[in-house]
Amino acid sequence: MVQDRFYATGKRKNAIARVWLTPGTGKVIVNKMATTEYFGKIFKEHLIEKPFKTTDTFEKYDVIATLKGGGKSAQVDALAHGISRALLETDPENRTPLKQAGLLRRDQRVKERKKYGQKGARAKFQFSKR
User: Fold this and answer.
1) CA 103 to CA 105: how far, in whole Å?
2) What are residue 70's DSSP bridge partners?
3) What is the pTM of this model?
4) 3-class secondary structure per residue, the chain
5) pLDDT digits (tens, 9 = 90+) for 95-111
6) Could you report the per-residue pLDDT of 35-94, keeping only the tens digit for each?
7) Is residue 14 packed enough to be buried (19+ CB in 10 Å), middle (13-18) or exposed (0-12)?
8) Which of 90, 106, 112, 122 is 20 to 30 A (C-alpha) from 24?
9) Could you tell me how far CA 11 lies from the centroid of its own chain?
């Protein structure tokens, strides 16, 4: 059975991207909008294209993604992570170039929580001797 739709999930900080790849012409639709419409004029478009260019599949798949959580920058990174994982589903041969480019690794850095008795995560209240 040949699968014509590939699904993967990408994450970054609090952003979660659910990504579906279908054979097509390279359209990227995010939350039922074009990427330029959703992210605005200035966004990291090269990050979305990087997984495709790494695996020589540029403009061979259409991307339909739903994004939620986080900010726009984290959402772009989550989308790139999801696309990379979906490309891995399309062809296991894509693993080596994607891994060498560092696109399969989830960036686990998240905001550190505020601690009680302190002003922030690491910042302390100002100390007064008297």
Assistant:
1) 6
2) none
3) 0.90
4) CCCCCEEEEEEECCEEEEEEEEECCCCEEECCEEHHHHHCCCCCHHHHHHHHHHCCCCCCEEEEEEEECCCHHHHHHHHHHHHHHHHHHHCHHHHHHHHHCCCCCCCCCCCCCCCCCCCCCCCCCCCCCC
5) 999 999 999 999 999 99
6) 989 998 777 889 999 999 999 999 999 999 999 999 999 999 999 999 999 999 999 999
7) middle
8) 106
9) 6
Q: Which two tokens stand for residue 70?
A: 């986080």
Q: What fold is seen in the domain 6-100?
A: Ribosomal Protein S5; domain 2 (3.30.230)
- Residue type for position 29: I
Alpha carbon distance 100, 69 (integer Å):
28
